[in-house]
## 1
Amino acid sequence: MLVDSHAHLMFPQFRKDLDDLLARARAAGVGRIVNVGTNLDTSRAAIALAEAEADVFASAGFHPSDSAKADESALKKLPALLKHHRVVAVGETGLDFYRKYAPREVQERAFRAHIRLAREMALPLIMHSRGAETRVLDVLAEEGGSEVGGVMHCFGGNVEGAKRAVDLNFYLGFGGIVTFKNSGALEVALDVPAERLLLETDCPFLAPVPKRGKRNEPAYVRYVAECFADAGWGDTEDVCRQTTQNAQTLFGLTS
Ligand SMILES: [Zn+2]
């Protein structure tokens, strides 16, 4: 079995063929999907899908790109969503200094609020970080994020950053980028301790080779597993078994 630890099935790219997509994922051996919310609407929709599909789980939170929406009254609505029995994590949250969706202070205020909520609810965190790996880890350390742990999804930092994340009790998620030649991500990923590695798609974005440039979907997480196997990590079944166990340990994905 495989787990797609980071998907966005509520995005409009999937509106027309979600049932077929889930069937393809199951046929590819993807037995669990963490469907990640990015604001109140997508979080609520993710929960509704998780109620309907036993192998799909939800998270709730505000993506850094939506952090301007995460004002006090919006944040007050999150705990009710996080209490839902199909919600397995807080997020995605974090910082994005690359696209600069919102001023740094606004992003950071929302991120800190998410960490506090995760601690209150005893839920792991799902972090987005782009051009901000060091700052994300600094804020996590300051706010006690290690207490609940979580994942640095689509990790784009270097080997030192990955080591620090592991030391702070976090997992590292890798997807299609490890299959892109010369991205450098595979070298970082191969250095991560086996028990801290998660696989993901981040679909609809970042489809792995040989689907690069197409719409991504959970079934393609198998290409990411095969990439690790080809790089000498172990055979594909070892990669699947270990990363599935890791996702189960972090998120507790029991239907
Ligand atoms: Zn995401």
Note: The chain is about 40% helix and 15% strand.
## 2
Amino acid sequence: MQNIEEHWLEPSKLSNNLLGPDQISSWRTQGYALVDGLIPSALIAQAEDDALAFFPKPQTPEAKHFETFGSGQKFVFPSRSRAVNELTMCSELLAAVSALLGEAVGDIRLSQADLWPKYGDGAVADRDDWTEQRIHCDYPNHTLLHPPQWDSPEAVEVIIYLSDSEECGGATAVVPREGPDDPAYAWPIFNMPGVQDRPYINSRVEAEGYLEKAHPDIAAFRATNLYARERAAHFRRGSVLFYRHDTWHRGRPVNDGACRIVQNLTFKKAGSEWLNVLHPGWCWSMYSKHQIMERWVAQASIEQRALLGFPMPGHNYWSAETVAAVEGRYAAFGIDMSPYRNALDG
Ligand SMILES: O=C(O)CCC(=O)C(=O)O
Ligand SMILES: [Fe+2]
């Protein structure tokens, strides 16, 4: 493998919190866009503070409880942190996703939202966990199908970094696609563990060891076309990596004794039912005592609600009766149903 950190991908700086044509085109053609300055820094700082206040310090026995991906359900949307929830659905992010997918914000759905503290504890070589991942695409654990052809993407994956790679390491690696004839991206994309009849293996050492024995052709493909070409995202606090279900990428080790905090999100086009919500379901938390979800539904914007599948005004779910029923459900939390009522026919 090359020394990947000599091949940094640097974030592009945004003016006025908007993706420009270069970033949109990078995501559509190369499979990723890495940006700085999209999300207000005060929101990033508050989300980081909330995460640091909750998660154990590195190198404590409690940190061992968070060795796998995610927050152990603690920060799945709707999380206990108002800032993390705001981050998930802030207008700057939704505008960016809308521009990438070419869909109105109301036609976008959220299918993953979880915060992940990734700890570095020094031992890398023979780990069979998330420490150093094998290069992969994310589609197998999001969709029942295969991503559509390259020019018709149906989902955007997002990593919002709440830490700085200079402090914590863990720079995500990406293989930029080089045009329609790029052999790395020959379609369909199967050359990884966890698809077809191959077992799911997360760690690089284990996965590549298995492939070298069982599928030497795939191992050779990966060495030449993927590992040799990967570039590491030189993220800062607040950088955002937009990528896709068909982008080759992998997580890399966090520095010994450090913790990297990221918010992982997936947005998809409404109607793509084959792309699953990764979590137990957005309503699951309605049986929690905290009532964060009920409050959030009542206070969210119409478009934020639509991200979870709540129908837009004018949808044929709505009638005078259903508007009144839903109003009754959330009235105690102050919901304003007038946009839904005003859009009723006649
Ligand atoms: O940890 C990273 O930088 C990437 C993680 C990853 O590949 C994933 O969440 O699918
Ligand atoms: Fe991934």
Note: The radius of gyration is 21 Å.
